[in-house]
Amino acid sequence: VGDPPPLMDAATAATATAAAALVWFRKGLRVHDNPALDAARRSAARVYPVFVLDPRYLRPDPAAPSPGSARAGVARVRFLLESLRDLDARLRRLGSRLLVLRARDDVSDAVCAALKDWNIGKLCFESDTEPYALARDKRVTDFAAASGIEVFSPVSHTLFDPAEIIEKNGGRPPLTYQSFVATAGEPPKPVMEKYSELPPIGDTGGYELLPVPKLEELGYGDLSQEYIPPFRGGETEALKRMRESLQDKEWVAKFEKPKGDPSAFLKPATTVLSPYLKFGCLSARYFYHCIQDVYRSTKTHTKPPVSLAGQLLWRDFFYTVSFGTPNFHQMEGNKICKQIPWRENGELFVAWRDGRTGYPWIDAIMIQLRKWGWMHHLARHSVACFLTRGDLRAGRKSLHARKKRVYFTSDSTFSKKKKPNSKIKLFCFTSICQLVSDMKYIHWEQGRDVFERLLIDSDWAINNGNWLWLSCSSFFYQYHRIYSPISFGKKYDPNGDYIRHFIPVLKDMPKEYIYEPWTAPLSVQEKARCIVGKDYPKPVVDHEAASKECRKRMEEAYASNRLGGNPVKGNSSNSSRRKFSDGGQDVPDSSMSKQPRKRS
DNA sequence: ATTAGGTTGAAAGG
DNA sequence: CCTTTCAACCTAAT
After folding, report:
1. B chain positions with any atom within 7 Å of a protein CB
2. CB-based contact A51:A83 (threshold 8 Å)
3. Distance, CA of A459 to CA of A158 (rounded, Å)
4. Domains, chain A, ranges and CATH?
5. Where is this region: Disordered (predicted)?
6. CA A360 → C1' C1, Å?
7. Is the CB of A306 under 7 A from strand B?
8. What is the mean pLDDT of chain A?
9. How far is CA A8 from CA A127, A154, A195, in A?
10. How far from A120 is each of A37, A99, A111, A117, A364, CA to CA, in Å?
């Protein structure tokens, strides 16, 4: 955890004098509640509002599985460009404009060049805690320091300052929601001062001032076949959408996230403000305080974690943990992540990614992701569980472990209840490794990558946090709870309207079969003009068998973690709290790096 | 060492 | 639409 950039209060910022200030927009694509923009306009006679197009983010990747760059699908790039156009329009209404720069390769080089070329005295930008941003911003602040340029970098993307919360919690990020909320307290109020004018931009020298580019100009090829998601980017749209959502006060007061309907698509069960929060078109603090206003006008309201305000706290929770956890975005070297020997690739992964698993509920969600760049939170759960720990595995039967009939438990309740006097054999780490190398369930990082690229609300901290959650790698550990790719969707949408909408080939399948079309008699398939295996794929796995197998594999992986058989760090100090009995039993393989630690 | 608690499972029963 | 059961996880707090 690096030191946060020093905060400057408004008074200090106001008295500071600099001939020209540069406001560097990255996230925070808004005018309201924008402390960086506020400080710039107060302290300088000329303000340069800048956005730098990042080739590392936008460069077309023809090898990608859908149009876009390696890191972003066109839906999110479109949303970004719409947000920039709206930001430009709003700045122009205040007598300014957005200066769109194109970096050759490294964004920080372009910013540093502008600072120098325009003789900037003060640089203002919103603090960003993502690793990519931290490295990028350090290059710029180092340059600024060396050049005597004042830097103001306030926290305004999140409700709280992640570094401050970590400090309050004794130097470690709170790892449970409850402890996070207790540590955090009440968030600061948004900065909502109204003003009608911004200082003009200064001389831009030889810089060519181009408008925000059109998506078609970025080289992604023919986009005429691309579906345009129903959500338009920008602060104006964000504020409108927020007001519409908050208008229904009863809905706000009674909101409970887990009770939402993931199949609702004509009118989604949530606000769909996440993409606006992701780009900072909407201030989380402003949203939070508007929600509080609604709560004050109603008799009762739901509470965190399920409430609407509670959702914003979840966002901050993941931002804080991700900021305070090295290698948060991966399994390796991530101290809070269970070490599970996932497989890296396979046909099953591609079937999942492309919505061809043969499970209409799963495929419809993945197609909605591809077309809309957004789906309901519970829909994300469903497909993430299916990919990682729920279903996608090979039907390999000859398991080394089962032949040997070893018990790998160190759980005292299990041994007491079921095998009170039995000799508990310890499962050795190498056996687990051998066994799991045949395993086909798929690494959460692969699913994470697909979401990260295609979601219009793709957010580094939240996306990784939720993949850790769903794969039972961190935060959540009840791996016996597996979403059924059949019954989970059916309970919300028994008629299958959601499936019919996103998978048109199934639109005439009777509702009795739409969640399991392979069970429909051939005559029914013919009548629906959808032959399973021809017009729509057969299921790639059998859910009953696969989920049972996956459950077992998770049990094995957890046992390995308990034994301190952490394949990455080899550090058993905090993972072997559990007591186990190993007296006189099979000696763990000598290649096991750490012996179980005896307690009692 | 023990216990309580955990945003979002499924199936069965009322 | 509610609760209970199922089989049972882990973590934090005590």
Report:
1. 1-2, 5-11
2. no
3. 12
4. 1-155 (3.40.50.620), 235-324 (1.25.40.80), 347-396+438-562 (1.10.579.10), 398-429+571-600 (no CATH)
5. 561-600
6. 26
7. yes
8. 86
9. 13, 8, 21
10. 15, 15, 11, 8, 51
Measured from the CB, is A481 under 7 Å from any atom of strand B? yes
Q: What type of residue sits at position A401?
A: A
Give the integer Cα–Cα distance in Å for A1 and A227.
41
Residue numbers belonging to the annotated binding site of A: 270-274, 311-318, 457-459
Residues A15-43: tens digit of each pLDDT: 445 589 999 999 999 999 999 999 999 99
Residues near A546 by beta carbon (within 8 Å), at least 6 away in sequence: A390, A391, A392, A393, A395
Distance, CA of A391 to C1' of C4, in Å: 27
Query: At residue A420, does pLDDT exceed 80?
Result: no
State how far the Cα of A131 lies from the Cα of A238, in Å rounded to an integer.
26
Q: Is the pLDDT of residue A372 over 90?
A: yes
CA distance A103 to A51: 10
Which residues, 6+ apart, have CB-to-CB distance to A374 below 8 Å? A229, A231, A272, A274, A275, A368, A455, A456, A457
HEC string for A17-39: CEEEEEEEECCCCCCCCCHHHHH
Q: Which residues pair with A69 in a beta bridge?
A: A60
Which nucleotide lies at the shortest CA–C1' distance from A579? B1
Any strand C atom closer than 7 Å to A574 CB: no
Q: What string of DSSP letters covers A139-184?
A: HHHHHHHHHT-EEE----SSSS-HHHHHHHTTSS---SHHHHHHHH
Return d(Cα A114, Cα A111) in angstroms, integer. Answer: 5
Half-sphere exposure of A5 (CA within 13 A, CB side): 25
pLDDT tens figures, A352-371 = 999 999 999 999 999 999 99
Residues 275-334 of A with CB under 7 A from strand C: none
Q: Confirm whether any atom of chain C, the nucleic acid strand, is less than 7 Å from CB of A413.
A: yes
From the CA of A441, how many Å to the C1' of C10? 22
Tokens of A96: 């300014």
3-class DSSP state of A120: coil
- Hits for CB < 7 Å against strand B across A residues 237-256: 256
Report which DSSP code applies to A217. Answer: G
Identity of the residue numbered A520: A
